[in-house]
Task: structure prediction
Amino acid sequence: MPLNDESNHPLKLYVYTVLFDEMFHFVDERNLFGDVNNKFFITSFFEPKFSFDVILTNNKLKPMDLASINYLAVVVAALSCFVVGYFWYSPLLFGNVWLKEAGLSREKIAETNMVLTFGLSFILTLIISFNLAAFLGTDAGLVWGITAGALAGIGWVAASLGVLYLFERKSLKLFLINAGYQAVTYIIAGGIIGVWQ
Result:
């Protein structure tokens, strides 16, 4: 959902809340309008079309409505990450290069408890999908879902991996493989949640 839309997008609400909080303090400290209701005065002139009576409660965002989240979409989005990972880290795509750059082998991976690894990975992926759904809100749509997924996957996750890999002296190939996977899965998950939310 574009930020210039008049709907109550979470990021837009957060920015407005911070701005209004600063303005309220500025006005209150200087008693600029005497006994006038400063909050009403400022909000009514800042953007009349915005539903501040719904958005602001004591200058803070209202709690997220967990009932508005489509949990089936969250589960499907989490499962899509595993589907992408199955092909992404297979010999068909980047599996062999990934093993080499990560200093692993299929024999070494086979020695691990795969049930525990996949189980914990799925729980973490569910958390990721849930947070993405909460960020997108309702009626996000395909375009904003994909856009938000790309912004999160590239701008946050991939960039954060880049910082870690620089200090850990990991190879550029390993970064591109792992960061690329994160970007693709966030985009797909965002699209699924955006359409289905």
Strands lie at 56-57, 60-61. Confidence is low (pLDDT under 50) at residues 1-6, 32-62. Residues 4 and 12 are 9 Å apart (CA to CA). The chain has two domains: 10-63, 67-196.
